[in-house]
Design brief:
CATH architecture of the largest domain: 3-Layer(aba) Sandwich
CATH topology of the largest domain: Rossmann fold
Structural class: alpha/beta
Order of helices and strands: EHEHEHEHEHHEHEHEHEEEEHH
Strand order of the largest sheet: 3-2-4-1-5-6-7
CATH class of the largest domain: Alpha Beta
Helix content: 25-40%
Strand content: 15-25%
Number of helices: 11
Largest sheet: 7 strands, parallel
Shape: globular
């Protein structure tokens, strides 16, 4: 499976490094490859443990860390996706003044075949939002291209201000999911999946234990995370491809990721179609049904503040119900995203 690449952006002081440190404390033994493209402000716990900056460190519950500029991005992605790296996700922590759209283009244009876009996350300081917006008018443009917005430091504003900011940010980000949080504590499973198989215990200290011993535990276990929500949908009715693509272009509020297999049942397209959606990125691949497998659709929808009843109702509305309109032309919207 391709390694997802998550881009974390945000202006200086928004809490990008704090969020990254929180992700590195994940409890699911996820190995995270970290690319930091701001040499002047490198200060992440993994590098403190490693004892140096421009180096790689592999720990039981740890990461691989590299500090590079944007020009070395493609080479670093290739390096981090080598089989012996054994990592599950790559996180790029952008410079505070980086242009998110440019970083996204770098990832999309990468010649490394073993990566897939994992979403563009914009971190916003709730307490300094208006001041940041005044100093950096381009913040509005950054929000417009974000797949997910982390409204950080909500512990520094009251409830009324928080609610107003959520509405404002959601409007500026064209309806992208907005996750209010403090200290960057979002649930890692909103961004990436834990390994399907637990890693063997080799007797080494875990990365989390190393951080605690070194005095870098941020105490996140004592606080609630801004959690993700997931909705599961299954049906043996074929889906109408036009209806499904219409849903993906106008998703229910809060939806960030969608994954699973789809059965369309369109003549000539009866195979299993794997669907992978992160933010604005859609990828489709084809597979064969197993000999004893009944064609079906099984999807998991992941997001924040998701209305499960709305998600399920809209997915059920995609069921074809024996429609005779499922012809070759109806598949064009799907096939444009087919992974060759």
């Amino acid at each position: 499976m391709p390694t997802p690449v998550v881009i974390v952006t945000g202006f200086l002081g928004s809490g990008k490094t704090t969020l990254l440190n929180h992700l590195l404390h994940n409890d699911d033994a996820v190995r995270i490859g970290v690319i930091v493209n701001d040499f002047g402000s490198v200060n992440i716990d993994a590098m403190l443990v490693a004892g140096q900056v421009d180096a790689m460190v592999s720990l039981d519950n740890g990461c691989l860390c590299c500090a590079v500029d944007a020009s070395g991005m493609d080479a670093m992605l290739t390096k981090l996706t080598q089989p012996d790296s054994d990592i599950d996700v790559i996180v790029i922590e952008a410079s505070g003044l980086a242009e998110p759209r440019d970083l996204l283009r770098l990832v999309l244009a990468s010649e490394e075949a073993d990566i897939s876009p994992g979403g563009l996350v914009e971190v916003v300081d709730a307490a300094e939002f208006e001041a940041t917006r005044a100093e950096y008018p381009q913040l509005d443009q950054h929000l417009a291209v974000a797949d997910l917005v982390v409204l950080n430091k909500i512990d520094r504003v009251d409830a009324a201000v928080r609610d107003r900011l959520v509405d404002t940010v959601r409007g500026l980000s064209d309806g992208a999911p907005v996750v209010p949080t403090a200290h960057g504590r979002i649930d890692p499973q909103l961004l990436f999946d834990p390994p399907e198989q637990p890693r063997p215990d080799d007797g080494q200290l875990s990365f989390d234990e190393l951080l605690r011993e070194d005095g870098h535990d941020d105490g996140c276990s004592e606080h609630l995370h801004a959690a993700f929500e997931s909705v599961e949908f299954r049906t043996e009715e074929p889906l109408d491809p036009r209806q499904l693509m219409a849903l993906l272009s106008n998703r229910p509020g809060g939806v960030y990721r969608m994954k699973g297999c789809v059965h369309f049942g369109v003549p000539g397209h009866g195979q299993k179609f794997w669907l992978h959606v992160v933010g604005g990125f859609i990828q489709v691949s084809r597979d064969d049904w197993q000999r004893d497998e009944q064609p079906h659709t099984q999807l998991v929808v992941i997001g924040a503040s998701v209305d499960a009843s709305e998600v399920l109702a809209r997915l059920r509305a995609c069921e074809a119900g024996g429609s005779c309109a499922l012809d070759e032309q109806s598949m064009l919207g799907v096939l444009r995203y087919l992974d060759a």
